[in-house]
Amino acid sequence: MSTPAEKVPGPARTPRGRWRFPWPQAVAALAIVAGAGVVLYPQTAGWFTQREQARVVELAETALEQPPHDEPGYRAQQLADAAAYNDALASGAVLEANANLPASDVVAGAGSLVYDELLAGPVEGFMGRLRYDALGIDLPIFHGTSDETLLEGIGHLEGTSLPVGGLDSRSVLTAHRGLANATMFTHLDRAEIGDTFVVEVLGEVLTYRVRDFQVIEPDQTEMLLAEPGADLVTLVTCTPLGINTQRILVTGERVTPTPVADLAAAGTPSGLPGFPWWAVMMGAAVILAVGLVWWSGYPVRPHEEPAAVPDDGRGPGAARPGVGRRR
What we know:
Elements: H1 23-63, H2 72-88, E1 93-94, E2 103-104, E3 126-132, E4 137-143, H3 147-150, E5 154-156, E6 169-174, E7 196-201, E8 204-216, E9 231-239, E10 246-255, H4 260-265, H5 277-296
Parallel strand pairs: 4-5, 6-9
Antiparallel strand pairs: 1-2, 3-4, 3-7, 5-6, 7-8, 8-10, 9-10
């Protein structure tokens, strides 16, 4: 009769030990989260800025459907006053040396027309909207180019034509580039000849096709003057990033008739700022940091050796009861 096989004990398991807060690893985890925050700040701040800009445009578009802005006579009078103002302009704009943005010459002959009251939208200072789909630009246009205005969106350069179209006119729209908390005209250097952009003002839709892309010196002021027989809009920003010694000029000429697709898209939401991928990446960094702290809080287990088989005095090569071939 065979005897029961002797049970060979397995390797002994060492308890992990009590969890303790790992201060060095916690500091490292905090550094990971802080580093991710620094890297993602421009994308995060830009996302919130775009959301606010889209909210302003949506608010203005909604208000245009309410009195008095929805009345054809009101809009027609506003557009007529803007055209009269354009006819009264004496000259264009200047690009002052050591300035990030252009400034305007004195307006002469405008009579009783007050700049800030022209094209007055339902939102204070709001003039219109610029859409440049190829560059992901969808921004509100405001009166003037003050520092406060240019933190909100695009500024219209007083002293240049109001953006209502018309021959012998050039409207200059300017915005910052390379801000840490907003995109604005950061990608204007990617503009290409043949691109189109759209200006929406009081329900009017004006499409412009890019005909010129120039990088100029600040004293080349003639580049911003109106051209006889042309209907132009010029987008201006500074370059190179952080140095601002030159200017990018992207000039579009009016396309008539206005493309049907642009008319159909007027007043629709921009789709910006898009999905917040920054939140996904920040969440991943936080999860990584928490996991590091949790895992590091347990003591490292010592190396586990297999348990030795008890020696019964028969030697390492001797057969043991119940092991081997049955008889």
